[in-house]
Amino acid sequence: MKKIKANSLKVNKDFLEIDLEGIKIVFSTAEMDRSFNRHNELGVVNLESIRDDFKVDSVKYLQQIHSDKAYIYNKYYKNIKDEEGDAIITVEKNVAVGVFTADCVPIIIVNEEKKVVAAVHSGWKGTFNSIVVNTINKMKEEYKINISNTKVYIGPHIRQCCYEVSEELKEKFIKNTSVEEGKLFKGRNLSMEEFILNDLRTSGIKENNIFSLDLCTHCEKSIKLYSYRSTNGIYGRLFSFVYIK
């Protein structure tokens, strides 16, 4: 896995951008206090503003429910925004597909060869139920992607330094993975990333094709991010998305 520092990325207003061959990955920040909460009017306006900011035709997302469900979006899918799930896959050009987070893990999966992309929302439930594996499997089944050249980008989320869980949940995670307890936990502080990394490696993603933005939504000081835990439930939403140019 390669760690990416925020200061090494292209910064555009309140977005961190990564340009690949014919594909752009974007992680929003809270630097300009712009929240992307689909459940209020301003949030919807901000979501729609992405079309102008990035010159895409549309912005697509799901009704997130902390599941392991992944959907495939194509231009004939009229009501994708009403579907309940936590990962969205597409091969459509100029369509931004994204997920909302505010401590959960945003994951972007790209295959440049077949031009297939996915955005995944992985909270503790999605992480526990290996939503990233389900998404990769769906991409393989539908588009026959080659795992050896598929890349994965893990965005800002609450990290082990700040994410304390119950003893009961700790025991459930330990029983559900082959990751060493000392890596997965420090005391009761969970590393969702370590669990996800194990899933990615088991799925065949190469180590040098895994990238992680080294940012904790809860305690990062160099860049402003939204965090559910740090604001006692009064929080905005980050939006992480990807599109094919």
TrEMBL record:
Function, as annotated, reads: Purine nucleoside enzyme that catalyzes the phosphorolysis of adenosine and inosine nucleosides, yielding D-ribose 1-phosphate and the respective free bases, adenine and hypoxanthine. Also catalyzes the phosphorolysis of S-methyl-5'-thioadenosine into adenine and S-methyl-5-thio-alpha-D-ribose 1-phosphate. Also has adenosine deaminase activity.
GO molecular function terms noted in the UniProt entry: copper ion binding; hydrolase activity; S-methyl-5-thioadenosine phosphorylase activity
Catalytic activities: adenosine + H2O + H(+) = inosine + NH4(+); adenosine + phosphate = alpha-D-ribose 1-phosphate + adenine; S-methyl-5'-thioadenosine + phosphate = 5-(methylsulfanyl)-alpha-D-ribose 1-phosphate + adenine; inosine + phosphate = alpha-D-ribose 1-phosphate + hypoxanthine
Domain of life per record: Bacteria
InterPro entries assigned to the protein according to its UniProt record, in alphabetical order: Cu_polyphenol_OxRdtase, Cu_polyphenol_OxRdtase_sf, Cytotoxic_necrot_fac-like_cat
Q: NCBIfam families in the record, alphabetically? A: peptidoglycan editing factor PgeF
May I ask which residue range the UniProt record assigns to the signal sequence?
none
Taxonomy of the source species: Bacteria, Bacillati, Bacillota, Clostridia, Eubacteriales
Q: Which family does it belong to?
A: Belongs to the purine nucleoside phosphorylase YfiH/LACC1 family.
Please provide the record's keywords in A-Z order.
Hydrolase, Metal-binding, Transferase, Zinc
What is the official name of this protein in its record?
Answer: Purine nucleoside phosphorylase
Pfam family of this protein, just one? Cu-oxidase_4
